[in-house]
Each structure stands twice: as structure tokens, then as C-alpha cells.
């Protein structure tokens, strides 16, 4: 029990680290959108099981699997009764942001490509949206104007004298 409590305190310190590259609300936004995407994909997956198309059935099953996996990765407290979820969530938290972006993006796009229906677009689209948010986080913060001007092309600098063309 003590190990679990120390793990939670370590995670809380990492989430509220003042030296982190993003504010706490951006990280919670990404987690929140991913959890919402997982829940919505499960909900719309159950609604989409009433279909006659085999490819749509496969897409719905993939969508529901992706939703359950994302809930297990982003909100492991929802799956405390499963022993191996804690190890998987620690592994997920140790991954770089672009890894999550690619995985969530692929998990969101595959069901949409298999079956373009409203329930797969709404369910898997939110998973893809969380992948996009993680992708933007992986790109990092934008530099300030002076750094952008220093690193840019000198032809675009406002200090360059442009000749007037008649």
C-alpha cells in the first residue's frame, strides 16, 4: 500500500512541476480529451453494434477496443481491479508525447477509414483529437518573436532595406 501511495505522490509532483514545458492545464486537457474520447468511443461503439455491414462491425470493435485501451492508459484508476493495468499505465506515462500522438492518431483513424458512419466519426474522432493535442504538445512551445527573427531568413527581416521598384 505504501508503494502505491508513493507512486501517486511522485505522479502528482511530476504533474505540478513548475519547470515543465507546459502548464498543468494543458496536460490535464490532453488527458481529459483522451478519457472523453475513450468513453465516447465505447458509447458510440455500443450504439453502432446494430449494423449489417461486416467492415462496420470490425470498425466498431476496433473503436471499442481503442476506447477501452485509452481509458486504461489515461485513467488507470477506472481499472484498479485489473492487476497489470498499473504497469501498462506507468509504461504509457514514461513514453514521449509524440509516441502517444502517433498511437492515438492511428487508433482514431483506422475505424473511420473502415466505416464512415456518424458513430465511428464521433467515437474515433475524439480519440484522433486527443492524438492531435498530444502531437501539438510534442512540437513544443512556440519561440518568442526575437528568437524567430534571429533564426529566420534575413530576407524577411524588417531591417533589410528594400529597393523601390518603379
From TrEMBL:
<feature type="transmembrane region" description="Helical">
    <location>
        <begin position="97"/>
        <end position="114"/>
    </location>
</feature>
<dbReference type="GO" id="GO:0005262">
    <property type="term" value="F:calcium channel activity"/>
</dbReference>
<keyword id="KW-0966">Cell projection</keyword>
<keyword id="KW-0813">Transport</keyword>
<dbReference type="GO" id="GO:0016192">
    <property type="term" value="P:vesicle-mediated transport"/>
</dbReference>
<keyword id="KW-0107">Calcium channel</keyword>
<dbReference type="Pfam" id="PF10233">
    <property type="entry name" value="Cg6151-P"/>
</dbReference>
<dbReference type="GO" id="GO:0030672">
    <property type="term" value="C:synaptic vesicle membrane"/>
</dbReference>
<keyword id="KW-0406">Ion transport</keyword>
<comment type="subunit">
    <text>Homomultimer. Associates with the dally/ magu complex.</text>
</comment>
<comment type="similarity">
    <text>Belongs to the calcium channel flower family.</text>
</comment>
<dbReference type="InterPro" id="IPR019365">
    <property type="entry name" value="TVP18/Ca-channel_flower"/>
</dbReference>
<keyword id="KW-1133">Transmembrane helix</keyword>
<keyword id="KW-0812">Transmembrane</keyword>
<dbReference type="GO" id="GO:0042734">
    <property type="term" value="C:presynaptic membrane"/>
</dbReference>
<keyword id="KW-0407">Ion channel</keyword>
<feature type="transmembrane region" description="Helical">
    <location>
        <begin position="120"/>
        <end position="139"/>
    </location>
</feature>
<protein>
    <recommendedName>
        <fullName>Calcium channel flower</fullName>
    </recommendedName>
</protein>
<keyword id="KW-0968">Cytoplasmic vesicle</keyword>
<keyword id="KW-0472">Membrane</keyword>
<feature type="transmembrane region" description="Helical">
    <location>
        <begin position="33"/>
        <end position="62"/>
    </location>
</feature>
<keyword id="KW-0106">Calcium</keyword>
<keyword id="KW-0109">Calcium transport</keyword>
Amino acid at each position: 500500500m505504501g508503494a502505491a501511495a508513493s507512486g501517486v505522490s511522485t505522479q502528482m509532483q511530476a504533474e505540478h512541476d513548475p519547470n515543465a514545458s507546459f502548464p498543468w492545464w494543458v496536460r490535464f486537457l490532453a488527458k481529459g480529451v483522451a478519457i472523453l474520447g475513450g468513453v465516447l468511443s465505447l458509447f458510440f461503439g455500443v450504439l453502432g453494434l446494430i449494423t449489417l455491414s461486416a467492415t462496420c462491425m470490425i470498425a466498431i470493435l476496433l473503436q471499442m477496443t481503442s476506447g477501452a485501451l485509452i481509458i486504461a492508459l489515461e485513467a488507470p484508476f477506472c481499472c484498479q481491479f485489473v492487476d497489470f493495468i498499473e504497469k501498462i499505465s506507468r509504461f504509457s506515462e514514461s513514453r514521449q508525447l509524440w509516441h502517444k500522438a502517433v498511437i492515438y492518431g492511428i487508433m482514431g483513424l483506422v475505424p473511420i477509414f473502415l466505416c464512415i458512419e456518424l458513430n465511428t466519426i464521433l467515437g474515433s474522432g475524439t480519440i484522433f483529437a486527443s492524438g492531435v493535442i498530444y502531437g501539438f504538445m510534442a512540437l513544443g512551445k512556440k519561440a518568442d518573436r526575437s528568437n524567430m527573427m534571429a533564426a529566420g531568413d534575413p530576407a524577411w527581416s524588417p531591417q533589410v532595406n528594400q529597393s523601390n521598384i518603379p
